[in-house]
From TrEMBL, chain A:
Residues 375-495 are annotated as: Domain IV, binds dsDNA. InterPro entries: AAA+_ATPase, Chromosome_initiator_DnaA, Chromosome_initiator_DnaA-like, Chromosome_initiator_DnaA_CS, DnaA_C, DnaA_dom, DnaA_N_dom, DnaA_N_sf. Keywords: ATP-binding, Cytoplasm, DNA replication, DNA-binding, Lipid-binding, Nucleotide-binding. It is found in: Cytoplasm. Oligomerizes as a right-handed, spiral filament on DNA at oriC. Plays an essential role in the initiation and regulation of chromosomal replication. ATP-DnaA binds to the origin of replication (oriC) to initiate formation of the DNA replication initiation complex once per cell cycle. Binds the DnaA box (a 9 base pair repeat at the origin) and separates the double-stranded (ds)DNA. Forms a right-handed helical filament on oriC DNA; dsDNA binds to the exterior of the filament while single-stranded (ss)DNA is stabiized in the filament's interior. GO terms for biological process: DNA replication initiation; regulation of DNA replication. It comes from the Bacteria. This is Chromosomal replication initiator protein DnaA. It comes from Methylosinus sporium. The lineage of its organism: Bacteria, Pseudomonadati, Pseudomonadota, Alphaproteobacteria, Hyphomicrobiales. The keyword Transcription does not apply. ATP binds at G200, G202, K203, T204.
TrEMBL record, chain B:
Coiled coil: none annotated. InterPro entries: P-loop_NTPase. SUPFAM superfamilies: P-loop containing nucleoside triphosphate hydrolases. It comes from the Bacteria. This is Uncharacterized protein. One of its GO terms (biological process) is DNA replication initiation. One of its GO terms (cellular component) is plasma membrane.
Length: 495, 231
């Protein structure tokens, strides 16, 4: 199954008998779950050691660990216990490339046991994602613990060093840096800091950069999305753990809440207002972001609004072209890390920076489309293919449904005849060929059946349509100028 | 034969629709130029450009089938468009939402997409139309949907329609001649929905009349469809 040396040296620590037992467990899992599921999740699962009634299983990524733990832990334990009778403990952990550096026993003791849900460490308020392995196919996954008021996970890519600055976001950037750089205990200069911008302009990036940086600055940070605030935070506040939570809040230096326009409901707003007041009064920094200025947050309590207005309010405007170029280049470079063959010519970058003017997330969408396009086609990108790949981002409507009427009108005007000529029963050469081309286009560009097309061409039989379609296909394969005319007509109809 | 005419005038023979659910196995999926890109992108998971992937195609183009293949291969969580779960209830992983156009709670989908992205999971979303063409009121959601790359399933070509007709007849245990398939493919609207509806109708008609599936019967039904469309 496993062919890399790492895994082989590993299993050699087990006795032959135990290795055979482990192979039987794998065989059972494979039979029970099917080839596809097995290969997705278990192909790289290894039994690393058996010691003092504990089995240590390892996988190469944190994501696999979390997925197997949450979906297959019971099944694995049952299968292992059936083979290894003395087993009472199963641990799944991530294999590190330098596994030998750490003592094995400590690893078992600290690894998250399958049986018990690990209590959340009280000190870890900001949950961090571990730096992902460079080649790992997926990003590491945050610990899905039961703690109701833990912070939202931070995306390691959203730091100040990756935030690109231009005239439109300069002020917001400077204010965020100032807040993040404050020394522990220093009285906040702007409190709260309120950032607003339309979607996709970098609010969340800025907030997460503040969270990360302030945390590095030895300040205790709680970063929450509005959803997390509403679901976890408030339930903790209003239910059983209210006192414990307030105790905890007292130990926070910086509270950061994203997308406050989603905060809804009277009790939630009351709690939010209360939290805001007590934190600000205690000299703690509060940072919030929304998609609109405070005065437009109709649903928020008047007292909350006045608090917001008492701090510094900065907005991020639309990105200018230079900034759009910078963002695109950074995005492309990041995509190249995962896929080195991905190459975007400068002309395409310029074209996209000029075309996608909406926001940074749409620029990301454009790079994602180029990446998908080049992955699937393997052909080098040019402005024309790029135009095609990002079409749906630029046009708000769907591609137009071509109608038979439109085809008849366009073909008639191209050949300088009337639409009535096309529908007529005349059989002169100057009418017959355009009629056949119009029938061909109707078959290719619409979903209509042959009898339907025949009817729309002056009540002709479907065999006539079929004959026209085959005739035009045949002619176009031999006659370059005809195939060019057809391509031109197709493009005009799609406009 | 006396009585036979009366019997024919009476209610048509009752039948049980035993064709059951359409088959959504890997081997049942017919790859054609119209759906090759979509199939390949889905097979490449987890090597996707973004945490979400949009699969866009008209009704009956095979979105649900591709989604089912994806879900089975990776044991994806199925998210109902009308009942999107609280993100807290999920574990970061891969999930499938079949039918973006049917989503009722946009805010819930917004939170779900954020959660899946934060936790390093993937979400496959199928939709009849590209997100920009749907009337999505929540700009935050639309913006995240626009970030996701789109793979389109185009209108099926003639060869795919033929292959699908054959598969649909086979699913219903109907042995038909290749000439019948050609005959129907030429005369039917070029969509998988039309093919599906037609095969079902033909099967039901043959069952209730107690007649075998023949070209004559198919021709009769096609004329009926054509007449109702022309009217």
């Amino acid at each position: 199954m496993s062919d890399n040396n790492d895994d082989q040296s590993n299993s050699s620590e087990l006795s032959i008998e135990n290795r055979q037992k482990w192979e039987r467990v794998r065989g059972r899992l494979r039979a029970e779950l099917g080839e596809a599921v097995y290969n997705s999740w278990f192909a790289r699962l290894e039994l690393e050691s058996l010691k003092d009634g504990a089995a240590l299983l390892t996988v190469p990524t944190k994501f696999l660990k979390s997925w197997i733990q949450s979906h297959y832990a019971d099944r694995i334990r049952t299968r292992l216990c059936a083979e290894f009778s003395s087993l009472d403990h199963v641990v799944i952990d991530v294999r590190s490339p330098t596994r030998r550096a750490r003592p094995r026993d400590a690893e078992i003791a600290s690894g998250a046991a399958v049986e018990k849900t690990s209590p959340a460490p009280a000190a870890a308020i900001v949950e961090r994602l571990e730096p992902q392995a460079a080649k790992a196919p997926m990003r590491a996954v945050a610990r899905a613990d039961g703690e109701s008021f833990g912070g939202s996970p931070l995306d390691r890519r959203l730091s100040f060093s990756t935030f690109l600055v231009g005239p439109s976001n300069q002020l917001a950037y400077a204010a965020a840096c100032r807040v993040a750089d404050a020394r522990p205990g220093e009285h906040p200069l702007f409190n709260p800091l309120y950032t607003h911008a339309a979607v996709g302009l970098g609010k969340t990036h800025l907030l997460q950069a503040v969270a990360r940086s302030a945390n590095d600055n030895k300040r205790r940070v709680l970063y929450l999305t509005a959803e997390k605030f509403m679901s976890g935070f408030v339930s903790a506040l209003t239910q059983h753990s209210s006192i414990a939570f307030k105790e905890k809040l007292r130990n926070i230096d910086v509270l950061i809440i994203d997308d406050v326009q989603f905060l809804q409901g009277k009790s939630i707003q009351q709690e939010f207002c209360h939290t805001l007041n007590s934190l600000i009064d205690a000299g703690k920094q509060v940072v919030v972001a929304a998609d609109r200025p405070p005065s437009d947050l109709e649903t928020l309590d008047e007292r909350v609004l006045s608090r917001f207005k008492g701090g510094l309010c900065v907005d991020i405007g639309p990105l200018d072209e230079e900034l759009r170029m910078k963002i695109l280049e950074a995005r492309i470079a990041a995509a190249q890390e995962a896929q080195p063959s991905f190459h975007v010519p400068p002309a395409v970058v310029t074209y996209i920076a000029k075309t996608i003017v909406t926001n940074g997330r749409d620029l990301e969408g454009a790079v994602n489309r180029l990446l998908a396009h080049s992955t699937l086609n393997g052909a080098p990108l040019c402005v024309e293919t790029a135009e095609n790949a990002i079409r749906d981002l630029v046009r708000s409507a769907e591609p137009k449904r071509v109608k038979i009427d439109d085809i008849q009108k366009l073909v008639a005007s191209h050949y300088n005849i009337s639409r009535a000529d096309i529908l007529s029963s005349r059989r002169t050469a100057n009418v017959v060929r355009p009629r056949q081309i119009a029938m061909y286009l109707s078959k290719v560009l619409t979903l209509r059946s042959l009898p339907e097309i025949g009817r729309r061409f002056g009540g002709r039989d479907h065999t006539t349509v079929l004959h026209a379609v085959r005739k035009v296909e045949d002619l176009a394969s031999k006659d370059k100028s005809l195939s060019e005319v057809i391509e031109l007509l197709k493009r005009m109809l799609a406009e | 034969m006396p009585g036979a005419g009366d019997a024919r005038r009476g209610p048509a023979q009752l039948f049980f629709d035993l064709a059951g659910a359409p088959r959504h196995g890997d081997a049942d999926f017919l790859i054609s130029p119209a759906n090759r890109a979509a199939h390949e992108m889905i097979s490449r998971w987890p090597d996707w450009p973004d945490s979400a992937l949009l699969l866009v195609g008209p009704p009956g183009s095979g979105k649900t089938h591709l989604g089912a293949i994806f879900a089975r291969r990776h044991d994806a969580l199925l998210v109902s468009p009308t009942d999107i779960p609280e993100p807290g209830a999920l574990c970061g992983a891969c999930a499938l939402l079949d039918g973006l156009e049917a989503v009722t709670d946009e805010t819930a989908l917004f939170h779900l997409m954020n959660f899946i992205r934060e936790s390093g999971g993937s979400l496959l979303i199928s939709s009849r139309r590209p997100p920009s063409a749907l009337k999505i009121a929540l700009p935050d959601l639309l913006s995240r949907l626009r970030r996701a790359p789109v793979v389109e399933i185009g209108a099926p070509d003639d060869s795919l329609i033929r292959a699908v007709l054959e598969k649909l007849f086979r699913d219903r245990q109907l042995a038909v001649e290749a000439t019948l398939v050609d005959y129907v493919a030429l005369r039917l609207e070029r969509s998988l929905d039309a093919a599906r509806a037609f095969v079902r109708m033909l099967d039901e008609e043959a069952l209730s009349r107690g007649r075998p599936v023949t070209r004559a019967l198919a021709g009769e039904l096609l004329q009926l469809i054509d007449a109702s469309r022309g009217a």
